[in-house]
Amino acid sequence: MNTGGSYNCHCNRGYRLHVGAGGRSCVDLNECSKPHLCGDGGFCINFPGHYKCNCYPGYRLKASRPPVCEDIDECRDPSSCPDSKCENKPGSFKCIACPPGYRSQGGGACRDVNECAEGNPCSPGWCENLPGSFRCTCAQGYAPSPDGRSCLDVDECEAGDVCDNGICNNTPGSFQCQCLSGYHLSRDRSRCEDIDECDFPAACIGGDCINTNGSYRCLCPQGHRLVGGRKCQDIDECSQDPGLCLPHGACENLQGSYVCICDEGFTPTQDQHGCEEVEQPHHKKECYLNFDDTVFCDSVLATNVTQQECCCSLGAGWGDHCEIYPCPVYSSGQESSWPFPFPEPRFLHLETFWGTGPLPV
């Protein structure tokens, strides 16, 4: 710009006035000579009349006056640390793994993972989400694992307090009892209970049923025997032993016993299982052999004997003193004729004679 006797220089932006021996002039202003002109994230490049800031990686030019290189916050980009926490650093960033149970949500933060919403890890059970973790509440028959993050089957058979009187078989979440013979499952199916076989009328027909653990006993009354383990049958004693009432009676079977039907002259014993001779007054008398009319009273073989004892082995007559009854002789159940080689005796009734020697006739 011309002035009276002189001139002035108005330099453009980026230039400065230089006064020298040759006069005044505008020379380039080196802006880059100023320290940190572009900030800590870049460097300055001088050009005639201007300059430029080149930013380092991790920095970008901020549209400001003057422009400077500012740090890029990579953590604002969710893709920087998709599975971890992002920590921004000058010109860079760092991915820090999120604690267990957390996941990066972008912006450098970790959020709690709701494990219960990503499928039930506690099956069969219920999942409860906790900060950074979760907890399992298990169904019956299952128990939490040592870390509490799953449900494990409980082997009830190992406890040893189930399935008494049976065999325990473990199943997922439960168990089954296989009961031994004579036992059945209880209502809660946790043990085997004794079957009271005596509740069934057919268990012991005709006898007394006694229940035992896992079984029963059938006690038959006297005169009966157990058939097939559950029926009491009458014993036919007369068929088992045909000679029970012989020789003086016949056997008749009864339910649980028998009786003897005795021949004439015999009567049943007290238990009716035998026959004994009917006792007559003064039933023990004398036994005779000789029936001679003059000396028969002297032919006494034995005294104080029964008719059976006399007539079976000793003599031929039996009775009171000098009052003789011939011994009967049986053949096929009938009395025979007088069998002896001497005359059939006369029967004397001498009630007042008690002497010895020949008797008057």
From TrEMBL:
SMART domains: EGF, EGF_CA. Keywords: Disulfide bond, EGF-like domain, Extracellular matrix, Glycoprotein, Growth factor binding, Repeat, Secreted, Signal. One of its GO terms (molecular function) is growth factor binding. The keyword Signal applies. Residues 28-70, 112-152, 153-193, 194-233, 234-276 form the EGF-like domain. It is found in: Secreted, Extracellular space, Extracellular matrix. Residues 285-332 form the TB domain. It comes from the Eukaryota. InterPro entries: cEGF, ECM_structural_protein, EGF, EGF-like_Ca-bd_dom, EGF-like_CS, EGF-type_Asp/Asn_hydroxyl_site, EGF_Ca-bd_CS, Growth_fac_rcpt_cys_sf. CDD domains: EGF_CA. It holds the Pfam family TB. The keyword Phosphoprotein does not apply. Belongs to the LTBP family. PANTHER family: EGF-LIKE DOMAIN-CONTAINING PROTEIN (PTHR24034), LATENT-TRANSFORMING GROWTH FACTOR BETA-BINDING PROTEIN 3 (PTHR24034:SF46). This is Latent-transforming growth factor beta-binding protein 3 isoform X1. It comes from Sus scrofa.
